[in-house]
């Protein structure tokens, strides 16, 4: 898999899958034994598919002939929390985890992508974060982020590692998240916090970007998807979460450049100009 340029994380997960099969009684050189063990597990469809794929790599390496068991993975609607819930989780977390979560909220990075981020990927002067090592064959991306995130990133301890969040595995971050959301769920008496994972931030940001722009191709590029088919789910989520938009606008007519600038800064958009009058509008 290394020779085929698979990621270190994918190789690690495949190794774990094979170890689990062996520990649960499978003879890895006997595909029928492997099928029997897989059939007895109460795994999710995603987990079952990943284990089957891991064994398939092993079978290829050892020239073992086998017929992969059928495994149908049905796409589920992801959980979308409120922004207040995400902000509460960020605010209740320690410095390192809070910065990590805010980065996910601003950029919709996958957690593995954020964990591999290096200091040279951050342009502190222009508040730009660049991702040149995307996962899952995604496209590289750049984001302009808000000043609060830049300040939090700047205040992280500069360890010997070139990576912003250090050399520890992503599982140390996941453990911190588990404890943070447990504390907050107990404090707020809100079990919804238990459903928030690192990937939840990506789903939330994609939904909000589509709500803001109504442009599925913008969201596709924002997430780094190769195909818009992977992005279309957020159209359905946005339609369910928000009322249909009403085409009602607040209109302003101005003449002076400073008036135009002030209105643009609060969300108005330029429409047209006629007889020295500039027309702008903002959705109600």
Brief summary:
The protein has helices at residues 8-23, 31-40, 45-61, 83-91, 95-107, 111-115, 147-154, 170-188, 198-213, 216-223, 233-241, 257-265, and strands spanning 122-123, 128-131, 141-144, 249-254, 269-274, 277-283.
Topology:
Layout: H1 8-23, H2 31-40, H3 45-61, H4 83-91, H5 95-107, H6 111-115, E1 122-123, E2 128-131, E3 141-144, H7 147-154, H8 170-188, H9 198-213, H10 216-223, H11 233-241, E4 249-254, H12 257-265, E5 269-274, E6 277-283
Antiparallel strand pairs: 1-2, 2-3, 4-6, 5-6
Helix pairs in contact: 1-3, 4-5, 5-9, 9-10, 9-11
Describe the 3D structure.
- This protein has helices spanning 8-23, 31-40, 45-61, 83-91, 95-107, 111-115, 147-154, 170-188, 198-213, 216-223, 233-241, 257-265, and strands at residues 122-123, 128-131, 141-144, 249-254, 269-274, 277-283.
- The chain has 284 residues and is mainly alpha-helical.
- The strands form two sheets. It has a three-stranded antiparallel β-sheet. Strands 4-6-5 form a three-stranded antiparallel β-sheet, covered by helices on one side.
- Strand 5 and strand 6 form a beta hairpin.
- The chain is elongated, with a radius of gyration of 24 Å.
